[in-house]
Write the structure tokens for this entry.
Amino acid sequence: MGAAATHRSDPLDVPSDAVSRKLVRDPVCGMHIAEGLAIVEQSGREPVYFCSEECRNKFLGEPKKYAANA
Ligand SMILES: [Zn+2]
């Protein structure tokens, strides 16, 4: 009679190690952020990462001040 409902187990919330866990550094405040969460700004040849728009704006206002470690 009652056919048991088969539970499909989609691996939707399997933590994927393929997702980038790389940490990048915000040159403005020095904070480390996961690359996937950071705001990326292309500065010259190098991408620069920020924790927030605020830091990005600071950097864009004075890029030379923060681009010291080339
Ligand atoms: Zn920041």
User: Anything to note?
Assistant: The pocket of zinc ion is lined by residues 26, 28-29, 31, 50-52, 55 (CB under 6 Å). The mean pLDDT is 82. The chain is about 20% helix and 25% strand.
